[in-house]
Write a structure and sequence with these properties.
Blueprint: E1 9-14, H1 21-38, E2 44-46, H2 55-67, E3 72-77, H3 83-92, E4 97-102, H4 117-130, E5 142-143, H5 145-165, E6 168-173, H6 188-193, E7 196-200, H7 202-210, H8 218-229, H9 239-256, E8 262-266, H10 272-277, H11 282-291, E9 295-296, H12 301-314, E10 318-325, H13 329-336, E11 347-352, E12 361-368, H14 370-373, E13 382-389, E14 392-401, E15 407-416, E16 426-431, H15 435-444, E17 451-455, H16 460-469, E18 477-479
Helix pairs in contact: 1-5, 2-3, 3-4, 5-12, 5-16, 8-9, 9-11
Length: 494
């Protein structure tokens, strides 16, 4: 997947001077061996410096993991650990970091072989708070070598995403379309997250597009598009314009990337886009998002940010959909009831005009945009990718800054059902347990917009950790409560 970092986690074992340093060193070696046996050894780096109670050793460890090219850090308490220097290490390391601790190995060695890291984790967490240092701490952060190897592997998608956000630039083109205040995007929280944003006019984009008139690369992109679409290429005459637009966006990113490493785009797509450019950009957006460069429609900045987060976590293509329409009762009765374990209110349809990449559609056609064609000449609405979203597991989620500049998020795991939506656009029949209550008491109650991002698979666990790490208050992370757990705003008599 392009536009996603490859992360190396530096493992630094720490030791307090009144405990045997050999405990930390030997446990570190066992941890590295366990990780390398079960996972990709290239994910980790074993720092040979063991921190005792010394800032000098801490500095040596810091320089070593930096020299090794580590983007993330694991502080491993092989014994009780030096609370000052171990948390100072985390404070001075600029990338994402985690803490975990070694469990005792055997009842037969609880003398000199006892490390008390179970106790040391408490002091480590207290000192992290004193220093205002964010760190990932697993649900149960104490374990043997195999347990801690699993914890580090769980940290990998979190570290990858946090690091990428620290190096992300979002490009926008134009203001939101009229009547789309729901995608209001106060940008202060982007800067709080370390994200850079470059806001541009549609005129800037229009000028750049025409500078690509007769670009010699267009023919190759057209050929690639035609190959991807196959029999679904229903309006081949628009492909040169779409290819020109794709080259425009790619070149814009390359020419404006500055010091940033990773990118996302929030683009304008209607209403004047069609009449001026002569097409809709949905198919191009789908191709770029499928390659790892998320492009949200309707200048949805936090939609683009959410897509990027999902791309980093899953290392797969994602999509952005309207939480669009209810499933008709007759469709539920005929195609869902008795076949799948969902109530009617657990279901809904996710839709967008055509920005879901072809690899996520069970069948597809590149054609015209039905909604826009109601008010515009049909020939200027060509360019949308229509099809049924493939069935399978999904995570539905969004990160949003509210109008009063509060970071909020939601997430829910579910699936796309193998049910024909019998409608137009890129669309699928979704099912999430207790969706009706989630819709009312999270999505509506917390004022989320109609766009939701989709990861194809169940990734709620690392996503929740990412939200916590980047500063979303846990009270502002909504999820679909089980039937027996009432939302605070839910009428107990309903």
């Amino acid at each position: 997947m392009n536009n996603v970092p490859k992360i190396k986690i530096g493992i630094v074992a720490v030791s307090r001077d009144c405990f045997p340093a050999s405990l930390a060193e030997n446990r570190r070696k066992a941890l590295v061996a366990a990780y390398s046996k079960k996972y990709d050894a290239a994910d980790i780096y074993e720092c040979p410096v063991t921190i005792i109670e010394s800032e000098t050793d801490m500095q040596a460890a810091l320089e070593d993991v930096k020299k090794a090219g580590c983007e993330a850090l694991c502080v491993y308490l092989g014994n009780f650990g030096p609370e000052i220097s171990e948390t100072m290490l985390a404070q001075k390391f600029e990338g994402p970091k985690m803490f975990c601790a070694a469990a005792e190995e055997s009842q037969n060695d609880l003398g000199d072989g006892r490390g008390d890291a179970f106790c040391g984790m408490l002091n480590a967490s207290y000192n992290l708070a004193l220093r205002n240092v964010k760190a990932y701490i697993p649900e149960y952060p104490v374990g043997d070598a195999e347990d801690c190897a699993d914890m580090i592997h769980d940290f990998l998608p979190v570290a990858r995403t946090v690091y990428a956000l620290q190096n992300l630039k979002i490009f926008t083109f134009g203001p939101r379309p009229l009547n789309f205040l729901a995608c209001n995007a106060p940008i202060k929280q982007l800067y709080n997250l370390g994200v850079e944003i470059e806001e541009n006019s549609e005129l800037d984009l229009f000028e750049a597009y025409h500078k690509h008139d007769n670009d010699p690369r267009i023919a190759d992109v057209v050929a690639d598009m035609a190959k991807e679409l196959g029999a679904g290429n229903k309006v081949s005459e628009v492909l040169p314009k779409l290819a020109q637009y794709e080259l425009t966006l790619k070149d814009w990113v390359e020419q404006h990337k500055g010091t940033r490493k990773y990118f996302a785009i929030a683009g304008k797509c209607w209403p004047a886009f069609q009449t001026q450019f002569g097409f809709v950009p949905c198919y191009v957006n789908s191709r770029l998002t499928g390659s790892g460069l998320p492009v949200s429609c309707e200048v949805d900045i936090y939609g683009a940010l959410s897509e990027f987060i999902g791309t980093c976590i899953s290392e797969q293509s994602v999509t952005l959909l309207d939480i669009n329409n209810s499933v008709p009762k007759d469709m539920y009765e005929q195609s869902i009831k008795g076949k799948f374990d969902y109530k009617h209110t657990d279901t809904f349809m996710g839709f967008h005009c055509g920005n879901t990449c072809s690899s996520r559609l069970s069948h597809f056609e590149m054609k015209y945009q039905k909604i826009m064609a109601r008010n515009l000449p049909r020939e200027v609405t060509n360019g949308t990718l229509e099809g049924t979203i493939e069935p399978g597991q999904i995570t539905f989620y969004r990160l949003q800054s509210t109008a009063d500049n509060i970071l909020r998020a939601y997430e829910a795991e579910g699936e796309v059902l193998p049910v024909e939506p019998m409608s137009f656009g890129g669309i699928g029949v979704f099912a999430i347990k207790e969706m009706g209550r989630f819709y009312r008491h999270v999505l509506i109650q917390k004022n989320f917009p109609h766009h939701g991002a989709v990861m194809f698979g169940h990734y709620a666990k690392p996503l929740y950790e990412v939200f916590k790490y980047i500063g979303v208050d846990v009270s502002e992370i909504g999820y679909n409560q089980p039937a027996e757990v009432r939302y605070p705003t839910e009428n107990p008599f309903a």
